[in-house]
Amino acid sequence: MITTEVTYEELAALMKQAAGITVDPQELRQSAESPFDAFGLDSLGLLGIVGELENRYGASLPPDSERCRTPREFLNLVNSTLTAGA
Amino acid sequence: MNNRRPRRAAVTGIGVIAPNGMRTDAYWKSVSEGISVLDSVTREGCEQLPLRVAGEVRAFDPAALIEDRFLVQTDRFSHFAMAGAALALDDAGLGGEPAEPFSIGVVTAAGSGGGEFGQRELQKLWGRGSKFVGPYQSIAWFYAASTGQISIRGGFKGPCGVVANDEAGGLDSLAHAARAVERGTDVMVVGAAEAPLAPYSMVCQLGYPELSTLDDPARAYRPFTEKACGFVPAEGGALLVVEDESRARDRGVPVRATVAGHAATFTGASRWAESREGLARAIRGALDDAGCAPEEIDVVFADALGVPEADRAEALAISDALGAHGTRVPVTAPKTGIGRAYCAAPVLDTVAAVLAMEHGQVPPTPNVSDICHDLDLVMSRARPAELRTALVLSRGLMGSNAALVVRRGDDSAR
């Protein structure tokens, strides 16, 4: 459970840590409707980010989260799930 | 596809990441000068293990050669393979985006996969729980990881394969690639790289009775001598670009060698006496495949396991297959200076054979100064010689035997 939402900054940092992809948080926010493919993130990479968020916040994310196609879709799902229990 | 004459696999690119040098020039300088880089194992977590000496690749900085997004999902063995492939492609003048992705394929051989990555993830599993195991564990350890990652990184969509066939699989991968070229694929990236010096990987090897446990780097690996006491393992590898010879000539790149013949046999794990017949059969098969008479072999790169029974079997196999020529032909084993990098060992030997033919020199066998077999083993310093055809031998600890015949590039044009 969190009170502050997962940000584009945190997502960018996770993309670097879990998938080795360097992306500017501003650019991630501006291109939030672009598919993850466009940033070079593959499905295993997203799965790793889901796992890291689950460990970080001690909460389970829905199975749909690793099938999200864009950063916006992903953050909306993650934040609605993580803040729902708050 | 050119139907006017048979397609032939030409070596046009070489990429080496070896304990004695990265890049081909450094490797050849060290090999031709007979420098031994065998040394005490320095890898963290290995200090207490009974394996004391190995051939480590110490100057390798994967982050300088490979993009982060590949680094996070791959083991050290794939780092070596990807770096070697990039060097080989550049050497062949094929760096950058492929013009025809389906015309380039990849085949690698692997002996044990990604042990270091696997150990790290298993430690997380044990120490913190299954949720802390990263998803890339599903691919990083896998034997086929290097083939896959080289393909993805280069954008290659031609036929791919992985040979998981014991140490001799390194030679088998070259044969596999040559056949792919003969069947119509323009270019194959081929070879092997291994990273067997992480603690977990090392423990796996401790059960091999053939492993040398001496702590003196100068004495730990001395095949063909009375003091032979096993082999020293190594990490690293070599990747080659092989392509259709006529295509290479059309592109105007040098044909460094041709893959002329290959054969493989199987005689069972640690059954070294039987490897005499198995290796001899492989040699005869490779000569037949190459249309090569025994007397045409100008140099033999020996398997050189360093186990007395295996060394005897190899010396006899060479004589069995080559007849009287077998005791006259120069034999060498440059791997005594760097160790045996499992599947990568015979690929590094093949590279040494190509370079030996280019330079007209048989490199020496480091750390070996006297032998107890009827072989003309080249020791102490390189021997100048006109070399047109080389025979490379390999045996795996699990019983595979293979022989490969390579010919000098400028000779194959005739």
From TrEMBL, chain A:
**Which intervals hold domain Carrier?**
5-86
Keyword Phosphoprotein listed? The answer is yes
Family annotation (InterPro entries): ACP-like_sf, PP-bd_ACP, Ppantetheine_attach_site
Source species = Streptomyces fungicidicus
Q: What is the lineage of its organism?
A: Bacteria, Bacillati, Actinomycetota, Actinomycetes, Kitasatosporales
Give the keywords, sorted. Answer: Phosphopantetheine, Phosphoprotein, Plasmid
Query: Cross-referenced Gene3D superfamilies, in alphabetical order?
Result: ACP-like
- Judging by the UniProt lineage, the source's domain of life is Bacteria
Query: What is the protein name given in its UniProt record?
Result: Curamycin polyketide synthase
TrEMBL record, chain B:
What span is annotated as the signal peptide, if there is one?
none
GO biological process terms, alphabetically, are: fatty acid biosynthetic process
**SUPFAM superfamilies named among the record's database cross-references:** Thiolase-like
Q: Tell me, what's a Pfam family for it?
A: ketoacyl-synt
* PROSITE patterns in alphabetical order: KS3_2
User: For this UniProt entry, which segments traverse the membrane?
Assistant: none
Please list the GO terms describing molecular function.
3-oxoacyl-[acyl-carrier-protein] synthase activity
InterPro entries, A to Z? Beta-ketoacyl_synthase, Ketoacyl_synth_C, Ketoacyl_synth_N, PKS_Beta-ketoAc_synthase_dom, Thiolase-like
- Keyword entries, A-Z: Acyltransferase, Plasmid, Transferase
Keyword check for Manganese, yes or no: no
Q: Which PANTHER family match?
A: POLYKETIDE BETA-KETOACYL SYNTHASE 2-RELATED, POLYKETIDE SYNTHASE-RELATED
The UniProt entry's sequence similarity note says: Belongs to the thiolase-like superfamily. Beta-ketoacyl-ACP synthases family.
**UniProt protein name:** Ketosynthase chain-length factor
| UniProt source species | Streptomyces fungicidicus
